[in-house]
Structures are given as structure tokens and as C-alpha cells.
Specification:
Butyryl-CoA Dehydrogenase, subunit A, domain 3, 17 helices, alpha+beta, 487 residues, globular
């Protein structure tokens, strides 16, 4: 089904309210100031699906039915398919300026579990793969948005989930039933949930038998009984909840998901205690996700270049003096995008057909994603000047105040051919992109860079590379790693 923005928003309005902000229940996520901007961001994706100029990015043909479907519900069965994941992400950032998790994590999760459920069924004789297929057919037919949730609250980082003083610090199964499972615990820092309709849960780590109850995967409606969603995005609320141009019409949400004995029907359960495969879920998911997120930060970087162009001109300056800064920003964008595409190109299909990116190169990309975008943000601030970075620019309410507004507008105006309001809007956009509500999780979104470095280290064959060097250098003796030497 190719949905419209109106159909999407109508669906959200029909759901049971269970999202909280500042301790208050949000009755309608499509209109509440804390969540409506994220809804608008996602709605623009449905606009793209119905726009002939962008349709090929947002729409594809189902490999299961041959029908036209929203691309974010599809199986990625080729290099071209997964590259289109990156194209969609970069396009969404260009349209919204920030993250749209409902077009992202659930899509990757369903593809990962397409592979892992087949492997589990082969070993254990389970029926997970067929269940996932039936759910996916329904998802394709409805075109729903599905957020994804991996990260647990975790508790004490030096302890395993089953050893935690509070077992609910990691989401786990508390009851196995013939008709499904009952789950309790917390998933934290989950993007786009308020604007999504379902949530795809994956295990948060690779587990051993003692932690098998934490090895779970399922998909459930956002408004399922027993789930409380706490919207946590706060750093920029002073701007995002204001009126006027202090923040754009788009935005992002983050959330804690608190599960209190939530029953999940068997048809929606795709892993329930098969701890042996929890690590494989993480391996496959991070490889694909960390390859694709290079496109996310590249897309926002494109907007930051544009904001820099606008600010230079609004300040009365040509772009040329900032050429070197603009070049560096562009190089940063294309580096994360290209390394991600490289990880995909070096990947291969799983036996079920879904494409799996190269693990090592994908994690190299994550390391770049945790550093290069911050340089791009700094350069955007440099180009924009103090009006962007120092926090001294008056609010929209002051800017339009009957008494103070004309005074402020007089002194905000800079470039002769650019109005005070245009300079103000460009400045606020630059601020939002680099300091405020538009900042995505570059550093820790999708996992920490230190975790990525561990994967790169584990996949770098140091002895093999040393052997190459020995041959070229003509070294014949065995150069061993020294033991502990007393000095």
C-alpha cells in the first residue's frame, strides 16, 4: 500500500494514548508540541511516496507479492536494495533536517530477523520465519511505520543482565505461554516511537544461557496494553516548544519504553530464549545499520552546507571566502556516505537472500559518523557567526513584539538584499542543526564508537599483515609478541 500523509496521521490519531512528556499524558501525538514535529517529519516521507519526482526513492516492488509497497517495509535482497536504504535516509534528512526513526530501524530489524529466524528454524524446528513472513505481508499491505528498539537501560555495566540488582534494567521474558510470551523491563533512547505505529524489538546484546530470557525479538503495536512511553527529548525544548521560527516544523523524538508484563501473541514473537542467535542478530543488524547511517549524517550535512550558504549571504558576504570550509563539509558528508556504500558493496547475501554489509567496514563507518559530523557542525557555526553559536539571538516572540520587534529587526538586518526575518530564520536553522533539536545521535546513535573500534580490532588480521611486511622487508626470524617484562 502506498499511503498518504492523511492516512498516516489518521492512524496515529486512532491509537491509545500512552506517550508521556513532563509527567503528562499526550492525548494526540499529531498535535502536541512535543511530538507533532516528529510526526510532520515522517509525514514528509509519505508525501515523497506520492510525488512522481521522488516516488522511486520511497516506493518499490514487493519481493513477496509483486505489488507496489512503501520501500521501508521491503526486504533488501540485493546491493541495489540496500543502497536505496541509504538513498532514502539521505533524502529524508534533506527533507526534514533530522532523524526519522520510523523509516529506519524497524526496516533494518525485519531484514535481520528474516535471516536469523530462518537459521533458528533450521536448527530448532521452530516456526519463527513463517510468523515473520505473515507479519511482513501485513506490514507491506498497510505501509505502517515501525520503530526499532535494541538498547536496554542496562543497569550496572560490569554485570550481566541476570546478575543485575534490578532485573528489569534489561527487557526480558517473565513468562513463556503456549499462546505467546510476557515481557517486562526497559528499552531506552529509542528514536521515532511517538511518530510510529509499531515497535520491532531485538535483543540488546549477545547472550549466554544464563541470560536466555533476555534473548527475545518480537513486534508489537505502539499502544499495546502495559507499555508506557516516556518522551525524553529535552535539550532543545526551550526552542522546540516555542512558536514561530525558533524551530522548524520538523523534529525528532526519543523515548524510554517501559514494559510492565506486556503479553505478546505467538504470531508476533520471532525469538524467545534462543540465546545462541542473539549475537548473530547484533552482528547482522550493526553491519547494515552502521553502513546506512553514513547517509543520515551526510543528508544533514547537506542541509548544513545550505544553511552556511544562506547565513553568509544574509550576513552580507559572498560564499567564496568560505570555500575551503564548504569543501571540508562536503568531503565529510561524502566520506560517511561512501564508506557506508563501500561496506554494502563488500557485503554479500545471506542464504535467505537478504543483503548483509561487510561487518568491519560498516564499523569503520560508525567511527567516522562519530567524528566527522561534529566538524561539519563546527564549520557551519563558524560560517554563520555569533548569531548562530553564542545563544544571544532574541526569540521569535521578541522579534515580533509590537514594541521591541521593530528595534530588534533593525539591528538583526545585515545583508542589503536580505530581510531581517530571513537572516533570523537562517540563524535559527543553523543553531537547530548544530546545537539544538535537529542534532541526531552521531556519537552514540546505533551504538558507541568504542564498540565499533572493538569490532574493527577483532576483524583486523594483525599477524597476516605482519607476514606481508616481513616478506617485503626480507625478515626471516620469528618476531613474537613480547611477554611481560620486568624493568
Amino acid at each position: 500500500m502506498i499511503r498518504t500523509r492523511e492516512e498516516y496521521i489518521k492512524s496515529l490519531k486512532s491509537m491509545r494514548p500512552n506517550v508521556y512528556k513532563f509527567g503528562e499524558l499526550i492525548e494526540d501525538v499529531t498535535t502536541h508540541p512535543a511530538t507533532c514535529k516528529a510526526v510532520e517529519s515522517h509525514a514528509r516521507g509519505f508525501d515523497g511516496a506520492n510525488d512522481p519526482a521522488e516516488k522511486e526513492i520511497f516506493v518499490t516492488t514487493s519481493s513477496l507479492t509483486g505489488k507496489e509497497i512503501m520501500r521501508h517495509t521491503s526486504l533488501m535482497l540485493s546491493l541495489e536494495d540496500i543502497m536505496n536504504n541509504s538513498r532514502l535516509k539521505r533524502t529524508m534528512y534533506r527533507k526534514c533536517g533530522t532523524c526519522t526513526g520510523g523509516f529506519c530501524v524497524g526496516w533494518n530489524a525485519q531484514n535481520v530477523m528474516w535471516a536469523v529466524t530462518a537459521d533458528m528454524d533450521e536448527e530448532y524446528g521452530t516456526e519463527y520465519h513463517q510468523r515473520l513472513k505473515q507479519w511482513l505481508l501485513a506490514a507491506e499491505d498497510s505501509g505502517i511505520l515501525v520503530a526499532g528498539a535494541l538498547t536496554d537501560a542496562k543497569g550496572d555495566r560490569c554485570m550481566k543482565p541476570s546478575d543485575q540488582p534490578d532485573p528489569d534494567s534489561n527487557l526480558h521474558i517473565v513468562e513463556y505461554r503456549d499462546d505467546g510470551i510476557v515481557i517486562t523491563g526497559c528499552k531506552a533512547m529509542i528514536c521515532g516511537v511517538a511518530a510510529s505505529e509499531e515497535i520491532f524489538l531485538l535483543p540488546g546484546s549477545g547472550y549466554k544461557e544464563t541470560d536466555k530470557d533476555y534473548a527475545l525479538s518480537c513486534v508489537l503495536p505502539k499502544d499495546i496494553e502495559g507499555l508506557t512511553i516516556i518522551e525524553t527529548r529535552h535539550a532543545s525544548d526551550c526552542r522546540d516548544l516555542e512558536e514561530g521560527f525558533d524551530a522548524p516544523a520538523t523534529g525528532v523524538t526519543q523515548a524510554y519504553l517501559v514494559f510492565d508484563h506486556v503479553f505478546v501473541p505467538k504470531a508476533r514473537v520471532f525469538m524467545a530464549g534462543e540465546f545462541k542467535y542473539s549475537g548473530k542478530v547484533i552482528e547482522y543488524f550493526t553491519a547494515n545499520y552502521r553502513a546506512c547511517i553514513g547517509a543520515c549524517v551526510a543528508g544533514q550535512g547537506d542541509v548544513m552546507i545550505g544553511a552556511g550558504v544562506l547565513m553568509a549571504r544574509a550576513n552580507g558576504l559572498a560564499v567564496k571566502p568560505f570555500k575551503d570550509k564548504m569543501i571540508t563539509m562536503s568531503v565529510n558528508n561524502e566520506t560517511t556516505y561512501a564508506v557506508g556504500i563501500g561496506a554494502m558493496a563488500l557485503g554479500k547475501p545471506h542464504r535467505t537472500g537478504v543483503w548483509l554489509s561487510n561487518n568491519k567496514v560498516a564499523h569503520v563507518n560508525k567511527i567516522h559518523v562519530a567524528s566527522l559530523p561534529y566538524e561539519t557542525k563546527r564549520l557551519c557555526q563558524e560560517i554563520g557567526g555569533g548569531i548562530v553559536e553564542t545563544g544571544c539571538f532574541p526569540s521569535y516572540r521578541d522579534f515580533t513584539d509590537p514594541k521591541l520587534g521593530p528595534v530588534i529587526q533593525r539591528y538583526v538586518k545585515a545583508g542589503r538584499e536580505v530581510s531581517a526575518e530571513t537572516r533570523a530564520r537562517a540563524a535559527r536553522l543553523s543553531e537547530w542543526l548544530t546545537l539544538g533539536g535537529g542534532v541526531p545521535g552521531c556519537m552514540h546513535g546505533g551504538g558507541s564508537p568504542d564498540g565499533a573500534r572493538m569490532v574493527v580490532h577483532a576483524n583486523t588480521p594483525y599477524e597476516e599483515f605482519a607476514a606481508y611486511a616481513k616478506i617485503i622487508a626480507g625478515i626471516t626470524e620469528d618476531v613474537k609478541e613480547p611477554g611481560n617484562v620486568k624493568r
